[in-house]
Amino acid sequence: MSLLIDYVRQFTRLQRNARLYLISNALSGVSLGILLLLYNLYLDALGYRADFIGAVQFAATVGAGLAIFPAGLCVDRLGGKTVLILASLLMGLLGAGQILFRQALPLLMTAFLAGIVSAALLVVNAPYLTQNSLPAERSHLFSLNLVVTLVTSVAGRLLGGGAACLASSADLADGDATLPAQ
After folding, report:
1. Domains contained in the chain, number
2. What is the pLDDT of residues 75-118, one digit of tens each?
3. In terms of residue numbers, what domain contains 84?
């Protein structure tokens, strides 16, 4: 418990930009956890099988893998703050595309492009935290960032799963749900 209290104290001592970044990561983690789970359920509801849903996830991973080094060059040229803003805006547009498109090819393309943009968000992480912290703060800041990212992602998936269960049980109670064939 004293370790948790120590991290809370360290958080209050961090520079403002570092605190805001951690808060942003926490909110993004919860949102992303919810959205990823519900997106997979959405693809399932569109009639896609598990193999296609896996291909969508794979396309995002390939996009991120191919873009990781070029994303680092973008951060060097444009700066972390600019890349964070642009990547966040692009991620919003691509997310809208992933919901609006229903055909396989556009879904795969938006997933691939979202992977590219997520690489930029990932690459900017360490330099941005380094620029917005003192050397004595960095070990706490980096470990806190990792914990916040992991815990909020899991929390988002739990919330998303709970929301899906609530929606499903409400449909069952109203008699609107289609039960799977036995």
Report:
1. 1
2. 999 988 899 899 989 999 998 999 899 999 999 999 999 999 99
3. 49-133
